[in-house]
Amino acid sequence: MEFPFDINTLFSERVSILDQTLVAGRKSAGRPDLQAHIATVIDELGRASAKAQQLTAPITSASKLQSQRHQLYLLKDAESNGGRGVVVGFLKVGYKKLFLLDLQGVHIETEPLCVLDFYIAENLQRHGYGQELFDFMLQHKNLEPVLMAYDRPSPKFLSFLAKHYCLTRSVPQVNNFVVFEGFFLNRSAAQ
Ligand code: ACO
C-alpha cells in the first residue's frame, strides 16, 4: 500500500504500535502534520480491510482508534517504493468483557485480549507477513494464541489460525467471538 508521503519518515520501525495518541515513535509526537498522515494511513487500511471482509463499514479508523483503548500493530516494508516504504498491513487487538460458553456450556465472564481486525494488502497475502505481524504481537503481549478471542474471524483468518497455531477446535458461542478449546483448559494458568 503506497501513499504520497514517505512511510519511513512516519514509521521508523518495521512494526509500529499505535494507540489512542496516534503517535508512532518520538518523531510524530507534537507533530500534527505527521499525525494527520498517520490518520490517513489508518483510515485507508480500515477501508481496505472492510472491503476485503465485505463489511458495510470499516471497523478500524483513526477516529475509532482515538476513542477506544485498542492497539494497532502496523507492518511496513522499508525498501519498497524506491526507499520510501510501503504499508504491508495491520493487526488490531483490545481487551473485551465477554460472556462465553465453556466446554460444558456454562456461561463464564472473562476479559481476554481479542483480535478485532487484521489485514494484509491483497498483493502481499500468503507471503508470511500475517504470521510475522501476529507473532510480533504475541511476543509483545507475552501471550499464547489459544488464550485469545477472535471477533468474527473470516474464512482466511480461520485457515491462518489452523495452519500456523493448530487452532481448529472451536467452542460454540452465542456471540460473534470464536475461542478454541485450550482457552478454557489453560484459563487458570492465564489468570
Ligand atoms: N484463502 C485461504 N486462506 C488464506 C488466504 C486465502 N486467500 N490467504 C491467507 N490464508 C491463510 C492460509 O492458511 C494460508 O496458508 P496457505 O497459503 O498454506 O493456505 C495462510 O493464511 C498464509 O499465512 P500468511 O502468509 O502469514 O498470512 P497473510 O499474510 O495472508 O495474512 C490474513 C492472513 C490477515 C487473514 C490475510 O489473508 C488477509 O488480510 N485477508 C483478508 C482480510 C481478512 O480476512 N482478515 C481477517 C479478518 S477477521 C478478524 O480480524 C477478527
Q: Could you walk me through the main structural features you see in this protein, from its secondary elements to its overall organization?
A:
- The chain is an alpha+beta fold.
- It has seven helices and eight strands, in the order H-E-H-H-E-E-E-E-E-H-E-H-E-H-H.
- The protein has helices spanning 7-10, 32-52, 62-67, 129-141, 155-165, 182-185, 187-190; strands at residues 15-18, 71-77, 86-95, 98-101, 107-110, 113-120, 149-151, 177-178.
- The strands form two sheets. The chain has a six-stranded mixed beta sheet, sandwiched between helices.
- It starts with 6 loop residues before the first helix and ends with a helix.
- The mean pLDDT is 95.
- The structure holds acetyl coenzyme *A.
- Acetyl coenzyme *A is lined by residues 49, 52-53, 115, 117-120, 125-131, 150-154, 156-157, 159-160, 163.
- Acetyl coenzyme *A (ACO) is lined by residues 49, 52-53, 115, 117-120, 125-131, 150-154, 156-157, 159-160, 163.
| Strand line-up across the major sheet | 1-2-3-6-7-8
- The structure class reads alpha+beta
Beta-strand content estimate: 15-25%
Report the average pLDDT across residues.
Answer: 95
Q: Looking at CATH, which topology would you report? A: Aminopeptidase
CATH architecture name: 3-Layer(aba) Sandwich
Low-pLDDT segments: none
- CATH class, named Alpha Beta
Number of strands: 8
User: What's the CATH H-level superfamily name?
Assistant: Gcn5-related N-acetyltransferase (GNAT)
Radius of gyration: 17 Å
Bound molecules: acetyl coenzyme *A
* Number of helices in the DSSP assignment: 7
Kindly state the percentage of residues in helix.
25-40%
Pattern of helices and strands:
HEHHEEEEEHEHEHH
Largest beta-sheet details? 6 strands, mixed
Distance between the termini: 39 Å
Write down the domain tally. Answer: 1
Assign an overall shape.
globular
